[in-house]
Write a structure and sequence with these properties.
Blueprint (H helix, E strand, L loop, with lengths): L15 E3 L2 E3 L6 E3 L4 H6 L20 E3 L3 E2 L6 E2 L4 E2 L3 E2 L8 E5 L3 E5 L4 E3 L1
Antiparallel strand pairs: 1-2, 2-3, 4-7, 4-11, 5-6, 8-9, 9-10
């Protein structure tokens, strides 16, 4: 078994071997010491914004909310199945990468992990 020095996900030095796997207790990442360089290349994050199913989102797409979302500072909620039309992709830095308007609520930012492409 190889002897890696850092977690490939969070770069932590606190890793340990468990059978054929290396485990990072800080982020919970598990990886095989025998993983090929091809698998490492697939894990590289691209700059594309994807929905919960892995579909690439573009400006102007329509999406459907897959989880009930409470709006911080308000008693309103965005219900499951709410269809949102004409989204705009942004890079807010806090994970809210979709800007949109929802009828009855107004302008809101959503995380792409809670929507699927309609």
């Amino acid at each position: 078994m190889q002897d890696p020095t850092n977690c490939p996900k969070c770069n932590s030095e606190n890793i340990y071997a468990d059978g054929n796997l290396w485990i990072c207790p800080e982020c919970g990442n598990e990886w095989s010491a025998h993983a090929s360089a091809d698998n490492a290349a697939e894990d590289v994050q691209d700059s594309l914004i994807r929905d919960a199913n892995g579909n690439i989102l573009n400006d102007g797409d329509s999406v459907t909310v897959i989880k009930e979302l409470r709006i911080k500072g308000s008693s309103n909620v965005v219900k499951v199945g709410t269809k949102v039309k004409n989204i705009r992709l942004t890079d807010a830095g806090d994970g809210h990468d979709i800007a949109c308007k929802i009828d009855g609520i107004g302008s809101i930012n959503l995380k792409s992990e809670f929507v699927k492409k309609a």
